[in-house]
Amino acid sequence: MLFIILLILSGVTAFALETELGWLDRIFLYRTSGLAIWIHAVYMALRQTNQSYPFLSYGYDWLAFAHLVIATAFFGVLKDPVRNKWIVQFGRISCWMIFPLAGIAGYVRGIPIFWQLIDCSFGIFGLIPLTICYRKIEQLEKANQISSCI
Questions:
Q1: Residue 89, SS3 per DSSP
Q2: Per-residue pLDDT tens for 57-88?
Q3: Where is 134: in which H helix or E strand?
Q4: Structural contact between residues 4 and 71, judged by C-beta atoms closer than 8 angstroms
C-alpha cells in the first residue's frame, strides 16, 4: 500500500510541476548552493517553456497518468499477492532500471550528478518495500504449497 500511495503522489505532483517548482524556488531564494541554483534554472526554463509552448507540458500530464496507471496495477497485489507476484517483480525491475537511465540520460542531458543521485534514490526507496513484499509473497506461496500437500 505504501508503494501505491507513493506512486500516486509522485504522479499527481507531475500535473502541477511549474507551481511546485515555483514554491521550491521561493524556498531557496537568496541561497547560493548548487541545489538552489539548479532549482532556479529548472524553474525558469519550465516557466519560459510553458509561456511559449504550453503544449509541451502535456508530456508531464502523460507522465502523471502513467504513474497512476502503474499504481492501479499494484492493487492486484493487494487482492491476490501470490497470483500477482509478477507485478512486484515488474516494480523491482523498474526500480533497477532507474540507475542506468539516470546515469546515461542524466549525463547526455547535462543533469548535475547530485540530481542524478536524487533520481537514483527513487530506485533505492522503491526497491526496499518491493523486496520486502516479494519475500513475504514467496513465504506465503510456500505456505500455500505446504497446506495444499496436507
A1: helix
A2: 999 999 999 999 999 999 999 999 999 999 99
A3: helix 113-149
A4: yes
